[in-house]
Design brief:
Elements (H helix, E strand, L loop, with lengths): L5 H6 L2 H11 L3 E2 L1 E6 L5 E6 L3 E5 L2 E7 L7 H9 L1 E6 L5 H6 L10 H4 L4 E2 L8 E2 L4 E13 L4 E13 L19 E3 L3 E3 L15
Antiparallel strand pairs: 1-11, 2-3, 2-6, 4-5, 5-10, 6-9, 7-8, 9-10, 11-12
Length: 205
């Protein structure tokens, strides 16, 4: 097996290092976060750091890289207090990934891709119309992580829109039925298939 010590990693070329380290945590969720500024500028950007933090209340978190450069997603969330999380499906992976390009604040990624903004009820932030799972979020709090100068943003689920065919009788969301993507490292996308589900596990007697 290949060995990389902490010292080895620190001495790797920048691109090799970020590809390697970003792959180590395994497959990650592939989501688009949709926001809008108070003056109506839409933004949508790909994130691979959405994490489940709890079900009662229903809370999700995600990681924002250092805000020492403009972060339109963060700015819009702080202005409006709301945002959306939208799962990426196989048929719009390329457009979803293009949202990682750094456009000026006044250019919407919706305009630069085939992605379409969708507004539901009176929720201010845009959903991604093609996404089979669309989640409306309310900003709750944030935590600064000193180790690498990033923020964890914590939000509470306000509404969820799910393609009917994905929901099993027990509430399980079968992502395989929606050809929903996952991300490997920074730019590798895969469409996983459900292999098995298991009953609640108890200690062996």
């Amino acid at each position: 097996m290949a060995l990389f010590t902490n010292k080895d990693i620190s001495e790797l070329s920048h691109l090799y290092k970020i590809n390697l380290v970003n792959s180590l945590s395994g497959y990650k969720s592939a989501n688009l976060i949709g926001t809008i500024s108070n003056d109506g500028k839409e933004n949508v950007a790909v994130f691979s750091s959405i994490v489940h933090l709890g079900s009662t209340p229903p809370v999700l978190g995600f990681i924002l890289r250092p805000t020492t450069v403009p972060r339109n997603t963060y700015k819009n969330i702080k202005e409006t207090g709301v945002y959306t999380i939208n799962h990426i499906a196989e048929d719009f992976i390329e457009d979803a990934h293009h949202t990682s390009a750094k456009y000026p604040e006044d250019i919407s990624e919706f305009e630069m891709t085939n992605l379409t903004a969708s507004y539901k009820s009176d929720f201010k932030a845009p959903f991604v119309a093609a996404s089979p799972i669309q989640i409306g979020m309310k900003y709750l709090e944030e935590y600064y992580i000193k180790a690498n100068d990033v923020l964890m943003i914590v939000g509470e689920i306000q509404s969820v829109y799910i393609d009917d065919k994905l929901i099993e009788e027990d509430g399980f969301i079968n992502l395989s039925k929606g050809n929903i993507a996952t991300i490997n490292s920074l730019d590798g996308y895969a469409i996983p298939e459900l292999t098995a589900r298991f009953a609640y596990q108890r200690p062996k007697k």
